[in-house]
Predict the 3D structure of the following.
Amino acid sequence: MSFVENLAIVLALCALLSLISYNFGLLTPSGSAASFIMGVVIGVFGSINWLIMLIAFALAGFVVTRYKIDVKMKNGLQEGKKGERTYKNVFANAFVPAMIAVISYAAGMQDQPIAVLAYLCSISVAAADTIASELGVLSPHVRLITNFKKVPAGTDGGISTYGTFWAILAAVFCSLAGWIVLFPGSAIDARVFVPMVMGVFGCMVDSLIGATFETWKIVDKLGNNVSSMAIGSVVGVLILTFM
């Protein structure tokens, strides 16, 4: 496939996702614009398959965001007014994957397994954290990750057995699906466990930062998400290097 053909497909996919997301009230105008930009960066500097994984994550995020949205709204636990997400939410979850794509392209490594798996680690963290957050707030048994004292649902750094279960399930599913999409035709091997573990690990790091630096107003939610995804990806690369 030529560069022009690849670019045309990337632009079409990103435009379609952004328009659908906006029309269904899943993204604000700024969120739709940010989604288009980040998708193009990942599709051009990574690959169409990298973009497909991002779109799959975004769709899964939209589904869990809408799940029991009336309950979330009643308790003030929703994103935006009705679950819609702004450019900040989009950048929070797509910045690290986009940077991995750009750095990999600059190094001529976007087709190398280490780069692909680093990207998958970042998506796994985002999926685990988003799904755990959106479903975990529905649990009445939330405890602070630093001291395990009971806290209200939605508290920064709060974790629950229910939310953790979904984080694990999201990381496992994302990693297996990601392997199929990103390594088409390749048999699954032990390396698939790295993004699985990093997904859950990154989700816990997010909660830890939430209970400390975010609560102390040192970082905001965007900074927390970017940091936890970056940590999950870097640690994943280090583990893969020694496998």
In short: The chain has nine helices and two strands. The chain has a mean pLDDT of 91. Strands lie at 143-144, 158-159.
